[in-house]
Write a structure and sequence with these properties.
single chain, 187 residues, mainly beta, Elongation Factor Tu (Ef-tu), domain 3, SH3 type barrels, 6-stranded antiparallel beta barrel, 6-stranded mixed beta sheet, 2 helices, 14 strands, elongated, disordered N terminus
Length: 187
């Protein structure tokens, strides 16, 4: 028997309801990450219908959260969409984009800015199709750091080493005062 990591398909979402009259459906991610399959990806519906659509290509995705509104090339009206409600969406593992960083390894890591010094530690990660965002809690309160090449300079493999970033203008107010995290007061 194949393990989940060696099977060629992954269960990525469940279709929870129809939306509109042109075949759009709302899907809920089952991966613990937001729905992130790109337009053009082929997906498979399970359990397959005897008379309905068994697979389709994604033609549109709106919403970047754990629920998204999705359209498929083979579903063009509400009747087709109704047949999919309750079905599970499978995708080929090779079609599923991977985050470049493992969330379990990042949460708790220290983040240091080359201009401002220690910022704090990553307490959460927000996932989106554009880029992930690290939520860092520390001396400036909560700082949202976009995970893009212009900002993230170095993520050492050694989890004891801090992650190095260069903050873009506006991520921390230039007049921002440091928050004393030991007393919860502004210094």
């Amino acid at each position: 028997m194949e393990s989940a990591s060696t099977t060629p398909y992954a269960n990525i979402a469940t279709i929870v309801k129809t939306q509109g009259l042109k075949g759009e459906v709302v899907v809920k991610s089952t991966t613990g990450l937001p729905f992130a399959l790109p337009v053009g990806s082929t997906v498979f519906f399970t359990p397959p219908s005897l008379r309905g659509v068994r697979s389709a290509k994604i033609t549109g995705v709106s919403g970047i959260d754990y629920s998204a509104a999705v359209t498929f090339d083979a579903i063009v009206d509400i009747d087709g969409a109704k047949q999919l409600v309750g079905k599970t969406i499978l995708a080929r593992r090779i079609d599923i984009p991977e985050s470049p960083f493992d969330p379990e390894v990042l949460v708790g890591r220290e983040v240091v800015c080359v201009e401002r010094g220690r910022l704090g530690t990553i307490v959460d990660i927000l996932f989106s199709r554009a880029n992930d965002v690290w939520v860092v809690q520390g001396r400036f309160g909560e700082v949202m750091i976009p995970v893009i090449d212009d900002v993230v300079l170095d993520v050492p493999e050694d989890s004891e080493q801090p992650i190095s970033v260069r903050l873009l203008e506006g991520l921390i107010d230039s007049e921002a005062e440091e928050i004393d995290t030991t007393e919860g007061e502004i210094r």
